[in-house]
Recover the amino acids of this structure.
């Protein structure tokens, strides 16, 4: 019995580092990776970037500014622990579904829709990226990292997609869009049924 | 007595690492979703056959079928989630491997809309099977992304193999692949019946 207890005791120190998958990278880098580590954020950002990249430079001009501004607003609200009372995951999945469907069908929506989608996406990702139990400086670092991470991810993915002009490359983008539709529909169905 | 209490406390502490909505959940959800179609031979056979058939039918079927499949599969998955029963899901999945394998073997060339409908009908069965697993997943979104991406990559494997049809020998190889899939489908069908 004592040797069993000793074995159990020896296994306990593992718990200490299982707290975070990327322990020790700091709040800024944690924030930087946050949009990529949360599946709903990553999916919505990716398909929005695919849509913007597929639609070209004019979509970028109209989509980026509202996204970046509203992401900052959402993050500030989250930083002050002000809740918007929104179901962020469902909202993000609805936006992801819309963007992914447009990508898969290769439909060019009216340009004003990019501003609307950017606004919604920015607010929802920002408001859903709050941190708790940190000092003011650490909170600022985490939120700044998150803003930069989401913005860089959007611009890089959209930029790469915009460069893909060969027919098979455009088809590849549409295929990824169809994957986004499938995932969004399934998880939306699940969350709707649960609620 | 003290030893027993200490044992219980120690075991309870050991359970702590299981709690998390951290990235471990996401990775676990994604990998289990990713492995779900790959570890089921009936799914693998049907997905590869979709890609092979697309390659035989050539453009635009080459990409329309792999786009149609996940879109309709999601509908099947939603039906499974809603608890709407679908008669003979396993039979439908097995039949998909048989029918698509025969289509590849015989190099069947129906109209594109008909091929899309056939693939779409079978996608509902595959989606229903995946969807029923979704509520148990550690992270449903990561799980769904995993199995959708795995499904797409299996289509891609079929398309890549199907591109051998550009050569005479490759055409025979692709049709032989269709024959193997059809035989496997017949075996799955016997087991599912």
């Amino acid at each position: 019995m004592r040797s069993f207890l000793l074995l159990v005791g020896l296994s306990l120190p593992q718990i200490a580092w299982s707290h975070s998958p990327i322990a020790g990278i700091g709040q800024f880098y944690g924030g930087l990776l946050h949009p990529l580590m949360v599946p709903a954020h990553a999916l919505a950002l990716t398909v929005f970037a695919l849509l913007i990249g597929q639609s070209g430079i004019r979509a970028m001009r109209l989509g980026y500014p509202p996204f970046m501004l509203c992401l900052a607003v959402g993050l500030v609200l989250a930083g002050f622990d002000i809740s918007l009372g929104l179901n962020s995951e469902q909202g993000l999945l609805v936006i992801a579904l819309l963007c992914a469907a447009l990508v898969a069908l290769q439909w060019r929506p009216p340009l004003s829709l990019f501003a609307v989608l950017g606004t919604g996406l920015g607010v929802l990702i920002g408001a859903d990226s709050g941190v708790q139990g940190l000092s003011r400086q650490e909170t600022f670092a985490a939120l700044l990292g998150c803003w930069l991470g989401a913005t860089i991810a959007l611009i890089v993915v959209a930029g790469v997609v915009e460069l893909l002009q060969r027919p098979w490359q455009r088809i590849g983008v549409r295929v990824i869009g169809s994957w986004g539709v499938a995932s969004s529909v399934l998880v939306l169905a699940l969350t709707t049924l649960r609620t | 007595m003290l030893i027993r209490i200490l044992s219980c406390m120690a075991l309870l502490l050991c359970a702590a690492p299981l709690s998390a909505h951290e990235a471990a959940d996401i990775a676990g959800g994604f990998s289990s979703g990713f492995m779900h179609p790959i570890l089921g031979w009936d799914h693998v056979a049907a997905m590869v056959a979709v890609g092979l058939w697309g390659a035989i039918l050539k453009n635009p079927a080459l990409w329309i079928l792999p786009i149609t499949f996940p879109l309709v599969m999601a509908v099947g998955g939603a039906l499974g989630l809603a608890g709407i029963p679908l008669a003979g899901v396993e039979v439908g999945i097995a039949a998909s491997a048989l029918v698509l394998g025969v289509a590849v073997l015989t190099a069947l060339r129906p109209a594109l809309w008909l091929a899309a409908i056939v693939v779409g009908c079978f996608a509902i069965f595959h989606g229903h099977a995946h969807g029923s697993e979704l509520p148990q997943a550690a992270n449903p979104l990561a799980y769904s992304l995993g199995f959708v991406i795995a499904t797409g990559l299996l289509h891609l494997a079929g398309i890549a193999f199907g591109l051998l049809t550009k050569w005479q020998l490759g055409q025979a190889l692709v049709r032989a692949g269709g024959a193997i899939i059809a035989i496997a489908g017949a075996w799955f069908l016997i087991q599912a019946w």
